[in-house]
Amino acid sequence: MKDKKDNLKAVNQDFSKYDQVEKKQVYNLSEIEGEDEFDENYIIKTVDMSGFLTGNLQEIEKFSQDLGEAMEKIGFVILTGHGIDINIFSEARKKIIEFFEDIPEVERIPYKAKRQGSVNQGYFPINETTIIHPDLVKGWVFCRRAFNMNNDPDYNEKDYWPRPGYEPFFRELCKAKETIILPIMQSILRYLKCDPHSFDKKLTDTNFGFRLNYYPALDDEYRSKGAGRMLGHEDVDLFTILPSEDLDGLQALNRENMKWVRIHAPKGSIVINTGDYMQRITNDRLPSTTHRVSTPKQESKYSKTRVSFPMAVYVWEDEILTVLPELENPKYPPISAIEFHTKITSKYYGDDYAVDLND
After folding, report:
1. Residue 292, domain CATH
2. Which residues are registered as beta bridge partners of 233?
3. Where are the alpha helices (DSSP H) in the chain?
4. Which of 12, 83, 160, 353 holds its CA 20 to 30 A away from the CA of 67?
5. Residue 359 falls within a domain, yes or no?
6. Of 121-135, 151-165, 212-226, where does mean pLDDT reach its minimum?
7. Gap between the Cα atoms of 139 and 73, Å rounded
8. Which of 110-115's residues contact partners 24+ apart within 8 Å by CB, and which partners?
9. Residue 243's closest CA among 298, 182, 174, 186?
């Protein structure tokens, strides 16, 4: 593959052979001044989840309808009333900055990312999130295996964490996020008039990708590289749970007019977006949502460090992804989660990353 610096002006369709669901949209991987258009009037829908949590059937139906409509229209929704103590989000931001700034690179390198199951897990140095694009972010992906969720006597913290003390905090954060996985999935299925509990077992103690993102301040050195903070992409998962950020930069593509929407979510809210697993099982009803992270709109914010901590919700590798049985005329045949996942993400990690169970 050519030098990824040559891909600074690449578009997503340059890598379309890796897609496992239909994606007709064409967009620049990085924001290119003068080329990209913005939809400054579009407002991402905010949905209050508190009614669902009361157990009132009428409130559950209303939440499901509001959530499903937003997912089908643009694939992004801002969630309030989710019941998670937002203080843990504030503490997470401090922990992530400490994690990347206090632990030297020499201690991180032994944990460089490698595939475990479907997911590339571990540390991604700056410019190494993918092999196709020099993103200006340091990342670290932890899946369920990285957390001692059930007090396993064979669990070894050092296998996943460069220093002690972080795993217990981030484990509790992941558990907090897990409390909304089933309500979200049940609501989506209810909106589609499918069995709302058909994924309850699959998404109980399911696999996930919990990523710590550390975006350094955009000084002259970083800006001279010409790259964005994170390339335009669609998530591979069912949906992603992303607590709102203090610093702007997240953008979603409005497929109706092919303009980018700058996302501004209030403090304490959670941004939810759909991914490739969801598009596959919903027969394209809920398309995987295109998004990216660009520089802040105001130059005065370039000197600020940005962090985020999304959780991508998967199913385990041996699950079979099939179009929901209630949906007519399925476009996609059944496929194992590990094949589906790795065939898509091999565009980021190389063709040898893909798993083919037929070989």
Report:
1. 2.60.120.330
2. 291
3. 50-53, 57-73, 87-102, 105-108, 166-178, 181-191, 220-223, 276-281, 337-349
4. 12
5. no
6. 212-226
7. 30
8. 110/162, 111/140, 111/160, 111/162, 113/141, 115/342, 115/349, 115/353
9. 174
- Tell whether 61 is covered by a domain: yes
Q: Structurally, how many domains does the chain consist of?
A: 1
| Angle separating helix axes 166-178 and 87-102, nearest 10 degrees | 140
For 278-290, what is each residue's pLDDT tens digit?
A: 999 999 999 999 9
Phi, psi of 59, deg, nearest 5: -70, -35
pTM: 0.95
Helix axes 57-73, 181-191, angle to 10 degrees: 80
Strand, helix or coil for residue 66: helix
The domain in which residue 201 lies consists of: 4-353
What does the pLDDT look like over 309-330, one tens digit per residue? 999 999 999 999 999 999 999 9
Is residue 344 in some structural domain? yes
AA letter at 233: H
Q: In the 8-state DSSP scheme, what is residue 112?
A: B
Which token pair is 337?
């989660």
Name residues whose C-beta falls within 8 Å of residue 145's C-beta, 6 or more positions apart in sequence.
116, 117, 121, 160
CB burial class (10 A; 0-12, 13-18, 19+) of residue 74?
buried
CB 301 within 8 A of CB 344: no
Cα atoms in the 13 Å half-sphere on the side-chain side of 186: 18
DSSP character at residue 308: E
Instruction: Tell me the HSE value of 116 on the side-chain side, using a 13 A CA sphere.
Output: 16
Residue 224 lies in a domain: yes
Average pLDDT of 167-194?
A: 98
Positive or negative: CA dihedral 305, 119, 352, 18: negative
pLDDT for res 133:
84
Closest by CA position to 290, among listed 1, 16, 3: 16
d(CA 228, CA 126) in angstroms, rounded, equals 12
The single residue listed with the structure tokens 């996302």 is 263
First-last CA distance in the chain: 24
SS3 20: coil
